[in-house]
Amino acid sequence: MKMLFIHDNKFWLKESTFYSYGHFSYELLWKRYLKSFDEIVVGGRVIDTEKVQDQDLSRFAISSGKHVRIIALPDLLTVKGLFRYKEAKNLIETEITHVDFLVARLPSNLGYIACGLAEKKGIPYAVEVVGCCWDSYWNHGSLTGKLIAPIQYILERHYVKKASNVLYVSRHFLQRRYPNSNFNMGCPDSNIQISEQDIIDKRIHKISNMSREKTIRIGLIASLNVGYKGHDTAILALEHLVKKYQNSKLCFLGDGKKDKWEKLAREHNVLDYIEFCGSLPGGAPVLHWLDDIDIFIMPSLQETLGRALIEAMSRGCPAIGGAGTAVPEQLPDDCIHERKNHKQLAEMIIYMIEHPEYMKLCAEENFVRAKKYSEKILEERRDYFWRTAIGNVSK
């Protein structure tokens, strides 16, 4: 069976090889689908590195591979892209007529087009709901985002509601906002390898040896290009934190331009306490980075899974997250702060630092909770979903 996968994901092309961020790697994602499909055509945004100066792909993962063909579609997320809707539709229509099944990952403008074409042509399809467009656009930080949010919200609700097969990455959050009464199930879109017992043992030892002399590393993983992942809340919390613990270091892992956050940090006199770590390929490099983090934070305004949070939990990281997203599905109530409340976030970090026994309990609890998201357990749920979704085609 041949499948067409459509999403707004960005790929980089260099010498016939496609690269992307870790999660869209061939090993982590496409091999998962190839268990159910013989061939996959992937449609997304593509950047030809020959047209980009000094493009460093060393921190990206290889996305192309056997039985996977990646095609370039217009970037509809730009002003110029608004005038390329027809071109995108024609390209997707050409591909969709030669496949047996469509998988549209939403929210995505290209995904909405694909869903509409699948309905029109009677192509069976499944929708993967991996995000909330309302939170993304409303908290984008611009007037344009707030104007687009209601339109995107209506589109996402419409196509999720009509889909015959829906896979949510959350347990409850997305299901409430984008309901579907057909075949659907929740299954986090993560690839967590369960850590061995020695990982939590090392973490407990690390907490026991924290001191005022050693650097206390606070970690946050998210692209620097988006304004709703809580970088601002973290920086403002850091201003409170360094008044008491000048050995604190706020570490940002993620791609994108840091200028905006450097400016904010400079205004609050904490730039010297921030480390921009760039991006890393998914898997082991990120896990090793997390092993050096003392407390992980996710003060995001938009989070439907918190994959980075689950990875941090699997390494025994004590963690604090923001309310109003899917993060409270992963963390206990005492580790959740109010949205945008940087002072409360700082106070919670300080409490952890000053109460190492509590910090150890948080680490152990997170380590156990993460086991629910092990690759083996989630693989069984995904396999069941795709067997049923594909089986529905023949009914």
Short structural summary:
The protein is α/β, with parallel strands linked by helices and 395 residues long. It is built from 14 helices and 15 strands.
Written account of the structure:
This protein has helices spanning 26-33, 85-96, 109-121, 133-138, 143-162, 173-177, 197-208, 231-244, 259-267, 284-291, 307-314, 342-354, 356-370, 375-393, and strands at residues 2-14, 17-20, 39-48, 61-62, 68-72, 101-106, 125-129, 165-168, 183-186, 216-221, 248-253, 274-276, 295-298, 319-322, 336-337. It is α/β, with parallel strands linked by helices. The chain folds into two domains: 2-191 and 374-393, Glycogen Phosphorylase B (Rossmann fold); 197-372, Rossmann fold (3-Layer(aba) Sandwich), CATH 3.40.50.2000. The strands form two sheets. Strands 1, 2, 3, 4, 5, 6, 7, 8 and 9 form a nine-stranded mixed beta sheet that branches. Strands 12-11-10-13-14-15 form a six-stranded parallel beta sheet, sandwiched between helices. α7 (197-208) runs antiparallel to α13 (356-370) and α11 packs across α13. The chain starts with a strand and ends with a helix. The relative contact order is 0.11.
